[in-house]
Write a structure and sequence with these properties.
The protein has helices at 2-12, 26-34, 37-50, 55-79, 83-88, 94-131, 135-152, 155-180, 184-189, 200-208, 213-226, 233-265, 276-280, 284-287, 291-322, 331-350, 354-379, 383-386, 393-417. The protein has 422 residues and is mainly alpha-helical.
């Protein structure tokens, strides 16, 4: 969330120049955004219900995130503009221009509201495991706390502690994977694409929890804070690619570790996932009786930090698309994050099944991904904007594969839900 804070600082006053940290950049922000309760829950259900069968979907989603986020970062570095700003100058005809912007704004608003539902529900699940109080009640409390923190700006005071807990939980999952010693034959066998009965929505959710549409907007806007105009473009692009690939790769490793521990500790024993306590069982080989308490605390931390980040990111994305100044104190800016936060809180409080709500949120992101990805590909082929740094044929083909797979899965799921296909 530090890059969001940097944008917020710029909206008020220009911060003093400071040395660049060559090792860490916006890629960590992207990873932090998708390593939340949605990823933990979706990956746990995937492993518990389908074993290693959907490992290929995790690998594909990580590769897709690398492809699209690299494009987004390259756009920001070369053009010094965000994806929203670039869209406003891409289409000439007013009907097409405003139709595209409207579609993107709607996609981001809807997607982030669903994502916010999953964030708050995840935090509620964690608190339920500790207190026994309904996750719907806790979702309302966390939503109100997020609103107060965002309005006051004091969320920065607790940011580092929360992120540290999320990082610690990630390390524990990776360590547990080593301890449980998964069957490597089954693990590598899961790299062969297959869609077991009832798993289509899960595949879409795994993609949606990794390739988060609003991250494409956020990445393009945040790279200019890391690599200023005085840095040579080629140098900035090289560092940015390393940052993106490394950060997303680490995030993918965590997701894979969660699938692996759930498959080994739960799928082989026929255990399902209905609560945070069920998901915590996969950490017992490492933590023993501490597993449930630790998992609950980590899930709460992941939910709270994502519940703060998602509304802010939506506000930056929509403001860019509409040409508004990203000022944290502006009424329109506050209205955007408030609507996203309020909508997510209402659905989280009214939701009947917390686990189902989280899974739906990730699936919604997966269904909306093709819309944003298509517009990104259109922008990335503009010679007048990117010159020699526009997409090559190879990058267009890779991006096209991501769009086709995501679209195909979404259409197939819709046709199955409506009974058109069996």
């Amino acid at each position: 969330m530090s890059e969001i804070d940097s944008q917020a600082d710029q909206a008020g006053q220009q911060p003093a120049a400071r040395p660049r940290n060559r090792r860490f950049g916006p890629g960590l922000l992207v990873t932090a955004a998708f390593i939340g309760p949605g990823t933990v829950t979706t990956a746990s259900i995937s492993g518990a219900n389908f074993g290693f069968a959907l490992v290929w979907a995790v690998v594909f989603s990580v590769a897709a995130a690398m492809v699209l986020q690299e494009m987004s970062a390259r756009l920001g570095i070369v053009s010094r503009a965000g994806l929203g700003e670039a869209l406003r100058t891409t289409f000439r005809q007013p009907a097409v221009k405003y139709g595209a912007i409207g579609l993107v704004v709607a996609a981001i608003a809807f997607g982030n509201s669903a994502y916010q539902t999953g964030n708050l529900t995840g935090a509620g699940l964690g608190l339920e495991a500790i207190t026994g109080v309904s996750p719907q009640v806790w979702a309302g409390v966390v939503g109100a706390a997020g609103f107060i923190l965002l309005l006051s700006g004091t969320y920065r005071l607790i940011e580092k502690a929360i992120v540290a807990l999320v990082v610690l939980m990630s390390v524990v999952f990776v360590a547990t994977t080593v301890i449980v010693r998964p069957d490597l034959g089954d693990l590598f066998g899961g790299l062969v694409p297959s869609v077991p009965d009832g798993s289509t929505l899960m595949v879409i959710a795994l993609i949606g929890t990794t390739v988060v549409p609003y991250n494409l907007f956020l990445h393009a806007s945040s790279v200019s804070q890391k690599w200023s105009e005085d840095v040579p473009v080629d140098e900035a692009l090289k560092e940015s690619r390393s940052d993106t690939y490394l950060a997303i790769g680490l995030g993918g490793l965590v997701t894979l570790a969660i699938v692996t521990t759930a498959a080994t500790a739960m799928f082989t024993k026929g255990l399902g996932v209905k609560s945070a306590a069920d998901m915590a069982a996969q950490l017992e080989p490492l933590l023993g009786s501490w597993a449930q308490g630790f998992f609950a605390l980590g899930l709460f931390a992941a939910g709270l930090t994502s519940a703060i980040t998602a509304p802010l990111a939506a506000a930056f994305a929509v403001s860019g698309a509409l040409g508004w100044k990203p000022d944290l104190k502006a009424t329109r800016f506050r209205a955007i994050w408030a609507v996203v936060l309020l909508t997510g809180t209402i659905f989280a409080v009214l939701g009947e099944s917390p686990v189902t709500a989280i899974l739906f949120a990730q699936a919604a992101n997966g269904l909306l991904l093709p819309i944003v990805a298509i517009f990104l590909l259109v922008v990335m082929n503009r010679r007048d904007l990117l010159g020699n740094h526009r997409n090559s044929l190879t990058r267009n083909m890779l991006g096209g594969v991501v769009v086709l797979v995501a679209t195909g899965l979404g259409v197939f799921n819709i046709l199955r839900a409506t009974g058109v296909v069996g």
